[in-house]
Design goal:
Length: 157
């Protein structure tokens, strides 16, 4: 049982550890379901690419990384079949990265796996306690869930 006078540094480390556990479990299950090449960074990238696609410049801006870093990640995801590059129909100089059906499958499976992981937490903690935890985190954090610049933020440390 944890003491109520835990040091202040423990809270962010516990939150990070919980995040890491969920992401590690997600990727283990994704690998079992046919997506062994996905890495945690890829989830941020694929969310940023979204259903409409994006350029490397826009992707870098959303992720808080350089155009070159975004381009390398697009290359990696293209090599393993999650992303394809197409020419923008409005401006043939622009290359758009789009998710392939395989990439969309990974995102769909990820959502289901996260639902399963959340259900496991509800079983372990109790649904009421999990709802309270989520409500408390909503009070303490900004409204925007989709803060995709975490990779760039970690890289700037």
């Amino acid at each position: 049982m944890m003491s109520s006078d835990a040091p202040g540094f423990e809270l962010p480390l516990r939150l990070l550890l919980a995040f890491r556990m969920l992401i590690d479990e997600l990727h283990a299950e994704l690998a079992r379901q046919g997506h062994p090449d996905l890495r945690p960074m890829h989830g941020f990238v694929m969310q940023a690419i979204g259903p409409r696609g994006t350029t490397a410049v826009e992707l870098g801006r959303m992720l808080g990384v350089s155009k070159q870093a975004a381009g390398k990640t697009i290359d990696t995801l293209e090599r393993v079949g999650y992303v394809e590059r197409t020419t923008d129909s409005h401006d043939t100089r622009r290359k758009i990265a789009r998710l392939t059906p395989y990439g969309m499958d990974a995102l769909t499976r990820s959502a289901r796996i996260f639902d399963d992981l959340r259900a496991r937490w509800a079983d372990e903690l109790g649904a009421d306690r999990l709802h309270a935890l989520e409500a408390d985190l909503r009070k303490l954090t900004p409204d925007g869930l989709w803060r995709l610049d975490t990779p760039g933020w970690f890289g700037s440390l």
